Amino acid sequence: MRIMGGSRWQVFRYAIVPSALPWVISGIRVSFPYAFIGAITGEFIAFNRGLGYMITWFQGTFETRSMFACLTVLVTMVALVNTGLGKLERRLMR
User: What is the domain extent for residue 39?
Assistant: First the structure.
């Protein structure tokens, strides 16, 4: 592109970003569940708010239905974010 007269911005926009985009999106899709698991684990251990804390609390008080309701909310949140990232990937990777 530089030989054909493209500016630095054009090289960046039309060559570098499209070639790096699949790797960036794949990294986000792979790392998001791990980040979410880390956040929930932190809530299990150290916090007094959040879904992780609620799961631990309901488990300790033998409220099985409430605990599974929290787990269902967590699974739904991860599924929605994963679906959103899939749609974003399809839109950006035309």
Answer: 22-92
Calpha distance 81→94 (Å, rounded): 20
Find the helix packing angle between 51-60 and 17-45, rounded to 10°. Answer: 30
Q: List, for residues 11-62, the tens digit of each pLDDT value.
A: 999 999 989 998 998 899 889 889 988 988 888 888 888 888 999 999 999 9
Per-residue pLDDT band at 1 (split at 50, 70, 90): confident
Q: What angle do CA 70, 83, 37 make, to 5 degrees?
A: 45
Residue with tokens 């599924």: 79
Instruction: Yes or no: say if 87 and 34 are a contact pair by the CB < 8 Å rule.
Output: no
Domain assignment present for 62: yes
Is residue 37 classed as helix, strand or coil in its secondary structure?
Answer: helix
